[in-house]
Amino acid sequence: MSTGSAGSPVSRPPSTLGWRVASRTIGLTRPLAGHRAFPLWGVVRHRGRRSGRELSVPVVVRPVPGGVVVPLPWGPKTNWVRNVLAAGECTILWKGTERRLGRPKVIDGATAQAAFGGFQRAVMARLGLETCLSLRFL
Fold this sequence. Notes:
The chain is of the alpha+beta class.
């Protein structure tokens, strides 16, 4: 990890298959995330814990009874995850509808796998996804 211009830590993207896939598909997913025609992706909207600014990030969304599970390809230490954990809530634009979510909890991939089908579990294993964020509808 290196430091940014203000001395704050700047994480470097991991050189994994997951990062390579994400960096090549973000241009496509960002404009489509949250739309009804693209249900795999949603947009998490949260508030920066230091800046107070409203921020958003496109994420993969998997519905579970009473909420959603979001795979965390870069783990739970990314700023958006830390913001959601600190606030205890966020909103998600998913399938064209904005929903409030709360009770965020980082769970391991083995626990989250019950929410995913066989093919999706295989992809998660191939991409090295070891953690997910569980969020409940409020």
